[in-house]
Amino acid sequence: MTPTDSLLPEPRLLEVYDSQLREEAELTGATRYDRDGPLWRGIFGARGFVTYRDLGGLTGPALDALITRTVAHYAADPSIASFEWKTRGHDVPADLTERLAAHGLVAEDTETVMLGEAALLAGEVSLPPEVRLRRIDNQSDPLPDLIRAAAAQDRAFGVGVSSGVEEFVRRLEHRSDLIEFWVAEVQGEVVSTGRLEIVPGTECAGVWGGGTVPEWRGRGIYRALTAARAKSALDRGVRYLHSDSTEFSRPILQRSGLLPVTTTTPFIWTRREDSGG
Fold first, then answer.
1. Comparing C-alpha atoms, which of 252, 250, 270 is closest to residue 260?
2. What is the residue-level pLDDT of the chain in tens, covering all 277 positions?
3. C-alpha closest to that of 272 among 95, 121, 82, 97
4. Are residues 131 and 248 in the same domain?
5. CA distances, 174 to each of 29, 106, 150, 167, 171 (Å)
6. Alpha-carbon distance 277 to 40, whole Å?
7. CB of 80 within 8 A of CB of 271?
8. Domain range spanning residue 91?
9. How crowded is residue 206: how many other Cβ atoms within 10 Å of its Cβ?
10. Strands 39-44 and 32-36, how do they pair?
C-alpha cells in the first residue's frame, strides 16, 4: 500500500497546510531567497530549495520553461551542490513530476504529510526508568551534544546524516528562538533524537528528525520525545504540529491524533562534476 492509498482528506487541515506551511514559511533559516513567478527559490548553505503555494496554472511548455530556468539558476552558482524541488500529492498539473524527471531531477522516497492539534500529542508516555529526556540546544556549548545526537541519527536511519550538524549549528546560531533539539539518553548514551521548529508568523511548528536506534525501538521513546516537543510547542502558543513522515513514524503520529493531509516527494537536482552543471 502506498501512502496515498489510505489518505483521509481533511479540508480544514489541508487549508492550514497550504496557507501556513508553504512558500516563505519553508525558507526560515535560508541564507537567501528570491522569486521567479510562483516559485520561492532558497539557498541553505550548499543546498537549494524550491517551494510554492501553487504553480499559478502553468502547464506544458510554460511549465517546462520555469523548470529550465530553475535548473539554470542553481547551476549558475558554483557553491550549490544540489537543490530540492518539493512536490505535493495534491498539486497540479498531474504531470509535474514527469516534467521534473525529464529535466534531470531524481525522485526520492514519498512521505506522508501529517498535521493536527499539538494538544493531541502532549499526553504522558510511560518510559523505561533508565531513559532520560533532555533538551540540548539551550546550553552554553551545545556542539558536543549535537555531535552525539547526530551519531545516534546515523545509527537510527542507517545512513550518514551527521554531515547536517554544521547546517543545524548555523541555523541554531541565527534563529535559536525557533529551534529546539531533544534527545533521549540511557546512561549518557543518546538513543533517540528529534527537533522542534517553530514556523514564525503561523500557528504551526514542525517535528523533525525523529529516530531511535534499533535496540531501543518499541519502548515508547519516539512517542515520549514527540510528547515532550508537543508540550514545549503548546507553551510557545503553537496550535498545530506537522511532520513529513516515513512509513515508520506515520503510524505513531496517527495513533496520537495527527491526520494525513497529503504526500510529499522531493525531486533532487545534483551538480555533475564532469560538466559543472
1. 250
2. 344 444 445 789 999 999 999 999 999 888 899 999 999 999 998 999 999 999 999 999 999 999 999 999 999 999 999 999 999 999 999 999 999 999 999 999 999 999 999 999 999 999 999 999 999 999 889 889 988 988 888 888 876 655 567 767 777 777 789 999 999 999 999 999 999 999 999 999 999 988 899 999 999 999 999 999 999 999 999 999 999 998 888 898 898 889 999 999 999 999 987 645 5
3. 82
4. yes
5. 7, 31, 20, 11, 5
6. 21
7. yes
8. 15-110+264-270
9. 24
10. antiparallel
Domain holding 83: CATH number? 3.40.630
DSSP assignment letter at 249 = H
Give the Cα separation of 30 and 44 in Å (integer). Answer: 5
- 182 shares a domain with 253: yes
Cell of 180: 529546539
Helix 143-157 to helix 165-174 angle (10° resolution) is 140
